[in-house]
Design a protein that fits this description.
With about 180 residues, this protein is an alpha+beta fold. It is about 40% helix and about 25% strand. The strands form 2 sheets. It has a 4-stranded mixed β-sheet with strand order 1-2-5-6.
Length: about 180
């Protein structure tokens, strides 16, 4: 009887600890949501070119969101919040039907550069530090070195986003090392 009571007592303690851990996790998530980078796509169904089918469009949006957050997290201090609203996307190149393959292929030409239009707000403790609207475009996207793999479907857009962050958010506002 005593052993059963001890097991129940331990189980109740263990259950309480799990509840505390979950609550701390939720508090940490809530605090993280208050600072950092938030990316929103405004009317993505009206974007010029994010791919032909829904699966490809989702992949493009998820890839852009992940990259904007990753680069933004390196450039914005922990106490700041950066809201990026993506207003339009036009991927590098354009899709063409290749009759011999019976498939669509993205053809890259100098006349079809990537572009992204976005609006951003950088704030800290509820105070807007900077806001604006930018149209990112890279007419020379095929020239020079691109640090992203040739197999990365968003390599030109990612490089363009990197350049924008470097010019818009100087190292002075970059995150301090942990």
């Amino acid at each position: 009887m005593g052993a059963a009571y001890t097991d129940l007592k331990y189980s109740a303690w263990e259950c309480s600890m799990k509840k505390i851990a979950v609550m701390l996790g939720l508090l940490g998530a809530a605090a993280g949501a208050l600072a950092g980078v938030d990316v929103r796509f405004v009317s993505p169904d009206k974007f010029i070119d994010i791919g032909r089918d829904e699966a490809q469009q989702q992949q493009v949006l998820q890839g852009l969101e992940a990259h904007l957050k990753a680069v933004g997290d390196k450039r914005v201090s922990r106490s700041q919040t950066l809201l990026i609203e993506v207003l339009d996307v036009n991927l590098a190149g354009d899709e063409r039907l290749i009759p011999s393959r019976g498939a669509m292929l993205r053809v890259l030409r100098g006349a079809t550069p990537p572009s992204i239009q976005l609006r951003y707000t950088l704030s800290e403790a509820g105070i807007v530090l900077r806001s604006g609207e930018s149209r990112l475009s890279d007419l020379g996207y095929q020239d020079g070195f691109n640090r992203y793999s040739g197999s990365d479907a968003l390599r030109y857009e990612k490089a363009m986003v990197d350049d924008w962050f470097r010019s818009e958010f100087s190292l002075a506002s970059a995150k301090a090392a942990p």
